[in-house]
C-alpha cells in the first residue's frame, strides 16, 4: 500500500516535517512493507515559507527587522528561482510581525505595527527579486497595513501635514496618505486563507482583535481608525473585498497600495509541491495538524489535502493533537484520530508530540488496512 503522509504543523509542538516523519516512523514500525511518502504541507500561515522553500529547492536569506512592538529581531525569508532563473522571495509576515513573537503579557494591539513586514519586503526588493510570495497568517497587528506601507516609504499625515506614527492609534487623526516616496516593488502574491472584509462585525477588528488581546474599548478605537483609513483613501469598495481584513487589514493595505493579488495559500503550496500528482499516485492519504476544528475546513491545509483526495477518489485519514467534538460528524475525512486518546494532558501532549504520533502507528495501520479493503 502506498501511503501519502501530508501533515501541517502541530503548532507549538512539531513542524510539518517533524509531524510527517513521526507518523512515517510509527507506520514503518507497525508495517515495514508499506510504501510511505512524506510531503509536509502548509497554508498561508506559519510554515508557508518553509514548505515553499523545501518544495522549490530554495535557500534562506537573513536580515534585520522589527517585531510588532518595534523591538529589533533577526528574521529570515526564502529565496527561490523561477523558470527564467530570476529570484523570488517567499516571506511570512509572522516572521517579523507575528503574534508568536509577543509574550501574552506584553501584547498591545493599539501599539502594534506591521512595519517589520515592510522592512522584510524592502530588503527583498533590494536583493532584486522579480516576485514576492507573501504568507500573512499569524499576525499580531490590526493596523490596516499602514506599518508595512511606511516601511516601503509611504507617509501618513494629519490635516496639518504633520507625519503620523504608522500605528492604529494614529489613524483617527489621518488626513492624507502620501505615496510619492514609496519604493517600486514587484508583483506580490499574497497567500490568504480568510475571506473577511476590513470593517464590520465580520471584519479584521471584531473577528480577530479579541484573539490578539484587544479589550472592548480597544476594539472601538481600532475599528474607528480603520474606518478613517478607508474614508481618507476613498477605497470603500476595496475594503469590502474578501481577504481585505486578513492579518489585521494587511490585505487591505497590500491590495490598495502595493498592487498585490490575493491567492489561496494552500493552493499556492499544493501547486509548488505538485501535490495533486502525489495524491494520484497514492492509495490512501494521511493528513493532520495540531487542532482539528471548524477552521480546518475553512482554508486550512488538512482540509485542502482532503479535498484533493476526494476529487481523486482516495480515502483520507486525519490526525490531530486535539479534535473538536463538532468535527466528529463530518464527511471530509474518512476517519479522524486524536492524540487525546493517550489520556495525556495538553501541555504534556505538546511536549511529547513526536513520541505520541509514532505511538499511533499500530492503530493507524489498522484504520488504513480497513479503508483499503
Keywords:
single chain; 373 residues; alpha/beta; Rossmann fold; Glycerate kinase, domain 2; 2 domains; six-stranded mixed sheet; five-stranded parallel sheet; 13 strands; globular
Give an overview of the whole structure.
- It is a single chain.
- This protein folds into two domains: 129 residues, Rossmann fold (3-Layer(aba) Sandwich); 218 residues, Glycerate kinase, domain 2.
- A hairpin with a 5-residue loop joins β4 and β5.
- The relative contact order is 0.15.
- The chain contains 15 helices and 13 strands.
- With 373 residues, the chain is an alpha/beta fold.
- It is globular, with a radius of gyration of 21 Å.
- The strands form three sheets. A six-stranded mixed sheet has the order 3-4-5-6-9-10, with helices on both faces.
- The N and C termini lie close together (11 Å).
